[in-house]
Known about the structure:
Layout (H helix, E strand, L loop, with lengths): L14 E3 L10 E7 L11 E8 L2 E3 L4 E4 H4 L2 H19 L1
Antiparallel strand pairs: 1-4, 2-3, 3-4, 3-5
Amino acid sequence: MKHIKPSPNSVQWPRHEVGSIQCRKRDLIIRIADWTRESLRTGEPALDVEVYIGGVYDWNESKTFTLRDLKTKQATKQAAVQFAQSQISKLL
């Protein structure tokens, strides 16, 4: 697995080290956050697929799948799972 480092700018964008998730340098973590219960008034229902490589979150390797774009919760779940699988294949 390729190791990455936080972005060298002051805001560490698009990569920043995360302290809330305990990782070793060789860990690949795919985190899926389910926001599909959010109402359209308070937020956008979505599934966030977040990729952490060696404790560093990479925005470019992560993706959000919205209910608005994919129309059904099942289609949103399927797209998130397929993306996570492709990221695992690519990054391991």
